[in-house]
């Protein structure tokens, strides 16, 4: 897994967009001393909370930022997208479970009056059956819940994977279709299947599996995607970070990421039917230059915005003004006045 109002957006299958909010007051440097160059983060997810006029940016916990060594998710907050508070831990993985690493790709969605955190964990020692030259391990998205955006989030169903444990998956996103039915959209790892896929699995109202997953597309469907050739002659193609967005004309789009010959890429796909089942066509990428795992949200002034991380190693957040063209979205410009980038990367050609 955008809201114009949070509940309406969930009914339409969108990710967090802000509703009309109270005007944000100027932040105090003492309370919000960070700017994006100061903020290490991967897989950023921003929720614009209309009730408080506050942006919440979720990412993997880092002890250097929070002073807390636990495996989990931390959140920065801001009133203006430029000045950010020091992060705090909103979820810590309970000890003794199946996972011991990860805390990747946090997404926070409003569902049935509560906030649900989707994040990905793994365990390198928990081997799955070998697939030729590939050795998959347990890796899955799990669920936690809270009554407040700032947590604390508590594990749902003992932090068990949403998708069956035999499938090596990551980056689960909540999507709600036009009938109000929830789905988990996620990446099936190339480490297990070679040509990574984006898949969708129906969920119950309790956000548990309600049926078998279905493949939406393969990474190799994108003409720009580069496969990593293996000794047996096969090629590995990566899928990462799916997030769905319905445009002003009802077109269903998906942001997702993979690699081209130069690094990480922010891709874009479009459903020809306007529904989750597709078929899905690959559009030109939104961004190249080692940028990706993006998501869309609306600022409190209503402007459509995308956040990505760049570069892949030692990543920082980058903000882009976006335009909804009805049949697709396009990048307008990098918001260097907010993210501090001195060498902005243009839109992908």
Automatic annotation (TrEMBL):
InterPro entries: GH43_arabinanases, Glyco_hydro_43, Glyco_hydro_beta-prop_sf. One of its GO terms (biological process) is carbohydrate metabolic process. The keyword Transit peptide does not apply. This is Glycosyl hydrolase family 43. Pfam families: Glyco_hydro_43. It comes from the Bacteria. Residues 1-21 form the signal peptide. Keywords: Glycosidase, Hydrolase, Signal. The keyword Transmembrane helix does not apply. Belongs to the glycosyl hydrolase 43 family. One of its GO terms (molecular function) is hydrolase activity, hydrolyzing O-glycosyl compounds. Pathway: Glycan metabolism; L-arabinan degradation.
């Amino acid at each position: 897994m955008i809201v114009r109002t949070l509940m309406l957006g969930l009914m339409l299958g969108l990710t967090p967009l802000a509703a009309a909010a109270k005007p944000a007051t100027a932040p105090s440097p003492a309370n919000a001393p960070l700017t994006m160059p100061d903020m290490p983060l991967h897989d950023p997810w921003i929720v614009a909370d209309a009730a408080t006029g506050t942006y919440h940016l979720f990412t993997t916990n880092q002890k250097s930022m929070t002073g807390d060594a636990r495996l989990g998710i931390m959140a920065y907050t801001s009133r203006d997208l430029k000045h950010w508070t020091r992060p705090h831990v909103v979820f810590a993985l309970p000890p003794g479970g199946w996972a011991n690493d990860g805390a990747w790709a946090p997404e926070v969605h409003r569902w049935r009056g509560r906030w649900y955190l989707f994040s990905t964990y793994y365990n390198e020692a928990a081997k799955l059956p070998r697939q030729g030259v590939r050795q998959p391990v347990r890796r899955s998205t799990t669920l936690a819940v809270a009554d407040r955006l700032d947590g604390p989030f508590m594990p749902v169903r003992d932090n068990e994977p949403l998708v069956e444990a035999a499938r090596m998956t990551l980056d689960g996103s909540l999507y709600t279709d036009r009938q109000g039915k929830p789905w988990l959209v996620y990446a099936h790892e190339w480490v297990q299947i070679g040509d990574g896929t984006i898949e969708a699995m129906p969920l119950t109202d309790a956000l548990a599996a309600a049926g078998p997953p279905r493949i939406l597309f393969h990474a190799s469907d994108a003409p720009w995607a580069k496969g990593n050739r293996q000794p047996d002659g096969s090629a590995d193609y990566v899928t990462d970070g799916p997030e769905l967005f319905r445009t002003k004309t009802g077109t269903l789009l998906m942001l997702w990421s993979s690699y081209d010959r130069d690094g990480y890429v922010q891709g874009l796909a479009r459903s020809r039917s306007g529904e989750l089942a597709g078929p899905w066509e690959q559009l030109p990428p939104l961004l190249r230059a080692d940028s990706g795992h993006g998501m869309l949200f609306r600022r409190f002034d209503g402007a459509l915005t995308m956040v990505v991380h760049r570069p892949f190693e030692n990543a920082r957040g980058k903000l882009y003004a976006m335009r909804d063209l009805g049949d697709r979205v396009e990048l307008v410009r990098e918001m260097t006045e907010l993210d501090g980038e001195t060498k902005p990367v243009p839109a992908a050609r």
